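$ fold --in a.seq
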Amino acid sequence: MGIIDGTPLQWQRIQQREQAQLRQEADVIFSSVFLGFLEDGLGKGVALRWDVEPVADAASAEAKAAEREQQQMRAVLARLVQLTGSHADVTVGSSPGYDAKTLQIGIAATRGTQRDVRPIAWNEGVATRIRNVIRQRTTDCPRCRFPVPDDSLASLNLDQEFGAYYGIVDHPANSNPLLVSSVRRLIEGDQEGGRWLSDESYQGLIYNKATGPASALKQAGSIEPTDLIQRWGAERRDQVCGYCHGMVWAIAQVACNFPDGHAYELGLGRNTHKLASCFGCSTFLFANGYVPSSMHLGRSESWVPLPEQADAPALFNIGSDGLATAQGPTADHHQRFLALNAAWAQAVARWMVTGARQLARAEPGKAVEKWVRPQAELLLAQIEQRRQHHRQARERAERAVANLFLDALTVHDKDLLRLSRVVVPPPVATA
């Protein structure tokens, strides 16, 4: 019931047992994709690295919590690597702290596999370039740890943003670069391959439960309408809210405007510390031939790929009098968006099948929790059903399968905790 078979389940109204089952479905879907992703990366010799937030004071309570999280991450990843049958190692570390001298505040997306991925692929030339870009596009904000985008919302919201990550493309011709943050999208249940609808108000929206959905303001660098969520309304239960992150927009602009450009995601604001790509963005990068400088297992909640409507690339077609300078014809930009998403869907569907088969074969109670095998078997059956339903259109079938991953991400939690509930022994959870 729930995500796998498409049953609507309102989280606030279902019983505790049903909530647990729904979470298990989300956990096994996420873990299947992660396990397939891990096996693929290790098999290609990619140096995979996951980081936790940096801590300045090594003696602080935060430092002790970070060390516990690293230990938990190492244990979880070690078990998952075992399940792949690989003898390779993955790296667990800490993101570099903010460096005012070099402006080391970015996540780099590098084309092709790397056997030696640094915490941040940075150099003085890039640092100078990004510093100049931010100076062009920012204003002073005494409350902010970093300079902030020159927008009326920026000085108000940036330090309160839930992950202030801003995508940007470095290219000599990109004279006045865009800084695009996470953009919220309201997706109809029958659009973009079909989505699971829980019949719950504001499905997928990230907000403070104490202050309500109206408090979930858009990020300063978002292109969404300012009143998108306010206009959504509690009565609309035929849509799900998704978050297209800044790195995804940067990869799209490289494809549309600057094919030899370099995509980065900047961590801005006082509360954005991890210089690492979330797992949602990591799947999009790997599927399209990129490797992030680092990854994290924090929250990929309600992550989605690019929008697919015909006017989706309009942001990159503004021209010389706007923010972006498009190079070459713009007529095929929509097709490039679709191609990026199709590559992502095919990879995620492949990883999901690989991982679900591994989980279905794993020994219950020893390698994985006892409930995992039946859920993995149900998932494999649903994948086959979706592929059969769309057997005349393979691309549509793969997107329908990949959307199970997106649906799982609407059941919000830290990604490390999702994985921890699947493997045995489950490491001690961190808050």
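$ fold --in b.seq
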Amino acid sequence: MTAPPAAHLISRERRKELACQLFLEAGMVALSGGDMQPIVYIRNEEFADAVSVRAKTTELRNLLDRVDEMADRVFADHEGRS
């Protein structure tokens, strides 16, 4: 009887909480034994290669850039009214 693969390495690189709610978590999981490839995860999405991870992190960076732009407009407008 072969033992099931065991969690060999789990790493939570980034974990950010906002108001007691999980906002973003990223890490990796590699299993010893078995055929499962290591994965990197961002929140609840798993990625099996670096290209896919980079596509997702680019998407997240673009979203945060848009949030920065929105904040600049909102606060500039508010300051202009004061």
